[in-house]
Design a protein that fits this description.
CATH architecture of one domain: Alpha-Beta Complex
Shape: elongated
Distance between the termini: 78 Å
Structural class: mainly alpha
Number of helices: 7
CATH superfamily of one domain: Ribosomal protein L17
Order of helices and strands: HEHHHEEHHH
Number of strands: 3
Radius of gyration: 29 Å
Length: 184
Amino acid sequence: MRHGVKGRKLKRTASHRASTLSGLATSLLLHKRIKTTEAKAKEMRRFVEPIITRAKRSLATTGDDSSIVRLHARREIGRVIRDDNAVKALFNEIAPKVENRAGGYTRVVKLGYRHGDNAEMAIIELVDWNGAEAVAAPAAKAAKPRPTRNKAKTAEAKLAETEANAEGPKKPRATRKKKAEAAA
């Protein structure tokens, strides 16, 4: 029995689970929004929020030791988040923006089920970036027509073919019985 055991195993060993959560957290810090399974998103929320809090508190320190505290926090976070660009984004963009927020930096939005394996999908995003990303997204493109299988046919050839077919009435298709009679 697993009474009181916190966290999800995600069907991984401890090292693989730590690596998965680290990679997902790196992607979240860089892109501000990622799509993953619901279980991973909920587990990553427990993983990334203390990291953001650590960065936020280190930036709030003042006094003689503030540079030492900031460097120590960067190194501690760098042990988990191994991408320098993600650590820079965390300290330069994310931590100053969530400075006045008392926690709850991420949001998990359920999407439904994945087509291939019916896994519950979700989007995890940083709360303060949801509007900015939606505005910056390009407008939806019109659906392109499906390419033809016969590449040799051009638009003029198709037009001529449809005109030729339109001139005369369609001849009924021969059934198996009629084909057998014609062959005999």
